Amino acid sequence: MSLKRIRLELARNSEFPNGSSQHGYEFIAPLDAKGHLDSASWPKAKAACTVRRFWNGTPDEHGTLIHRKNGSWAFSYEVGEEDDEPIFRFDRHLFVEGEYVTVTEHDGIARPFRVVQVIPAILRS
């Protein structure tokens, strides 16, 4: 298992025709050697699997990457599922620069994000 810090930035859409580097997520997740989420390693690493949602004009939100019992993944900011942001086929994505991921955000809208950085996670003790 290798913990990585992954940065997603808003991809092109009708609201942002050029995408936006000021809207996105940074999160830590265990990846396998090919760059896929390592669900088998997640239980051991879940305390380190944090997320920061940054959205221009609003305060950052901090939460965790969760792996649900049904096998799906989500970003969660508070206890319970009301604020969870499900990630479409997260376990099938390859986390390398240039790939795309769809996140269904708080407002219920599914938005595309581009992987712009994947680096080793440096955790503080």
Shape assignment: globular
Roughly how many Å apart are the termini? 19 Å
Helical/strand content category? mainly beta
- By DSSP (H or I, 4+ residues per run), the number of helices equals 1
What is the strand content? over 45%
Strands in their spatial order, largest beta sheet: 6-5-4-3-2-1-8-7
Give the helices and strands as they follow along the chain: EEHEEEEEE
- Output the radius of gyration: 14 Å
Report the average pLDDT across residues: 89
Structural account:
The chain is built from 1 helix and 8 strands, in the order ββαββββββ. It has one helix spanning 42-45; strands spanning 2-10, 20-31, 50-55, 58-67, 73-76, 85-87, 100-104, 110-120. With 125 residues, it is mostly beta strands. It has one domain (2-120). The chain has an 8-stranded antiparallel beta sheet, with no helix packed on it. The chain is 3% helix and 48% strand. The two termini are 19 Å apart. Strand 5 and strand 6 (85-87) form a beta hairpin.
